[in-house]
Design goal:
single chain, mainly beta, 4-stranded antiparallel beta sheet, about 5% helix, globular
């Protein structure tokens, strides 16, 4: 019996090793920018460098622009939505791989799952799951517009909001795990803390939910929440409110501090490695605020700042403005460079592994900014 068992055990060990090797190699390279604001905590921070200068590599024309921000897959494919009802897949050289036609405008930003599938919301009240070859895997209908960008948890659960006043949690096969009703439209993307708590804003409050969909707490602001939340390494939750204030909350839902900005804050905060928080306002300014709520500096542009910033590994802050420009700002608030487009820039930048920055403009183009020699 032992003689028979030994080769069988050896075969089992060998098979397991081969399977483990395949799994390891298939998951060895995570996407450089898998979702809006880069990660589950919405920090907007990457370990990669960004473009050192304002050199255009290419631009790609789409049927109609929109606020959708790009996501970047492991193989370098760039995914971005458009008001022409399409999700585009572009190669790193700027040529089109495919375009998926949804049933409405795609103002949601795509999120890439661990299996390579792309999830995107549409103004036809649906969330779509699209295969890497551009074919539809499934669709999930809600009772309202889906402008919320999906967030994919570590277990593969897809979280997103709808204008039907609900946050949804779906399994990877498109079936519903649970839904949570709020007092207003859920138009933005939820953030997920390291302990699995889901934070998201609605027209009535900021909510904290357990992974099973049960409410932990809610924080009510006058006229609701105007920006997506971001979570710092110490668990602090940052977001903007409609009363022209910026908030910092403790993980238990109590207020840490608030900062009056004088203007509406709709951009999701980006959080640097030293804890500095960067966010834009409709007053045409980018703010840098310390973790204690004190303002470090402000940088003025010629237009409102509606979208969020991206932070490279050297601390450079990249963002777009309604003045039709993309900016690169040093951590001390001085300008590094600016790049002019033909329309307002209301989407957030995404940074690839090679340092290329991708961003959309309302001139109906997607831009790739980066050194051509890279």
């Amino acid at each position: 019996m032992k003689r028979l068992l030994a080769p069988l055990l050896g075969l089992a060990v060998l098979t397991a090793a081969v399977v483990a090797c395949k799994l390891s190699s298939s998951n060895s390279t995570p996407p450089p920018w898998p979702m809006v604001h880069h990660d589950l905590q919405h920090t907007g921070r990457t370990a990669n460098l960004g473009p050192p200068s304002a050199d255009k590599k290419w631009d790609f024309g789409i049927g109609d622009a929109g606020p959708s921000s790009a996501a970047i897959a492991s193989d370098g494919t760039i995914y971005v939505g458009s008001n022409d009802q399409r999700l585009y897949a572009l190669k790193p050289d700027g040529t089109k791989k495919w375009a998926f036609l949804a049933g409405g405008k795609v103002q949601s930003s795509p999120a890439i799952g661990s299996d390579g599938k792309i999830y995107i919301g549409s103004l036809d009240n649906k969330l779509y799951a699209v295969k890497p070859d551009g074919t539809k895997e499934w669709e999930f209908a809600t009772g309202g517009l889906v402008t919320s960008s999906p967030t994919i948890g570590s277990d593969g659960t897809i979280y997103f909001g709808s204008w039907d006043n609900k946050l949804y949690a779906l399994k990877a096969d498109g079936t519903k795990k649970w839904e949570f009703a709020t007092g207003g439209a859920v138009s933005d993307s939820p953030a997920i803390a390291s302990d699995g708590t889901i934070y998201f804003g609605s027209e009535d409050a900021l909510y904290a939910l357990a992974p099973d969909g049960m409410k932990k707490w809610e924080f009510v602001t006058p006229d609701g929440v105007s920006s997506e939340p971001a979570i710092a390494s110490d668990g602090t939750i940052y977001f903007g409110g409609h009363q022209k204030k910026f908030y910092a909350l403790n993980p238990d839902g109590t207020k840490k501090w608030e900062l009056a900005t004088g203007d509406l804050v709709t951009s999701c905060p980006a959080i640097a490695s030293d804890g500095t928080i960067y966010f834009g306002t409709w007053g045409r300014k980018l703010y840098a605020v310390g973790p204690d709520g004190t303002k470090k500096w402000e940088f003025s542009t010629g237009g409102l700042i509606n979208a969020s910033a991206a932070i490279a590994s050297d601390g450079t802050i990249y963002f777009g403005s309604g003045d039709k420009k993309v900016y690169a700002i040093n951590p001390d608030g001085t300008r590094k460079w600016e790049f002019a487009t033909g329309g307002e820039v209301q989407s957030s930048p995404a940074i690839a592994s090679d340092g290329t920055l991708y961003i959309g403009s309302f001139d109906k183009k997607i831009y790739a900014i980066g050194s051509k020699s890279r």
